[in-house]
Amino acid sequence: MKLQLGKTATVQEISEWKPGAIICATGSRPYTPAIEGMDDPRIIMSDDLYSSTKKVGDNVLVFDFDGDWPGMEAAIYLAEKGHQVTLISSRLHIGETVHQYLRNENLKKLYNLNVKLLPHYDIGAIKENHVIIRNLFTQQKEELTNWDSIVLSLGRIPNTELFEEMKGHAPIVKQIGDCLGPRTIEEATHEGMMSVISL
């Protein structure tokens, strides 16, 4: 077996190898909604929060679509650094999909850090210094004006571009992991093992 790291896979090069199988494990990327204001420079994706050189303002809105741990962790991280944080989620309750014990610990931290929790809302638009949010049950819209930065944790979508390009270039072309559907490391590991076994 020959292992190559740090190299971009191209259709031309892989076709020259004449592989018997191609397994695409190209992961996923953050979902960004097609709404007004998504090009605002004050937006930071939760993936980039911990490595970004962008300055985070004093008052931060964290938007969470999945009710998963990245939104909660981002809010805790920022609040511990002294920011005033509002965690807004479109879920029934904050951390809805997080395991109960971890969710409870994170909720305890959020309350102790005085993070404002606002479930049942999604983001509608960003217009200058106004963020428009919408209640998912009443459809009523509200405007938030007291903010300096926005952190988005809106779920993930598969990186399928390479998979689509590779179709027809080997007898077997498969997707695994987040390239098939964003989930957890358990599913990715299982699919990787099962793909190799089935070859």
Topology:
Layout (H helix, E strand, L loop, with lengths): L10 H7 L3 E4 L3 E3 L12 E3 L13 E6 L4 H12 L3 E6 L10 H13 L3 E4 L1 E7 L2 E6 L5 E4 L4 E5 L2 E3 L2 H6 L5 E4 L9 H14 L1
Helix pairs in contact: 2-3
Gist?
The protein has helices spanning 11-17, 69-80, 100-112, 161-166, 185-198; strands spanning 21-24, 28-30, 43-45, 59-64, 84-89, 116-119, 121-127, 130-135, 141-144, 149-153, 156-158, 172-175. With 199 residues, it is of the alpha/beta class.
Tell me the number of helical segments per DSSP (H or I, 4 or more residues long). 5
> Order of strands in the sheet with the most strands?
3-10-4-5-6
What is the CATH superfamily classification of the largest domain?
FAD/NAD(P)-binding domain
CATH architecture of the largest domain: 3-Layer(bba) Sandwich
Number of strands: 12
Return the string of H and E elements.
Answer: HEEEEHEHEEEEEEHEH
CATH topology of the largest domain: FAD/NAD(P)-binding domain
What is the global morphology? elongated
Integer tally of domains: 2
- Mean model confidence by pLDDT: 92
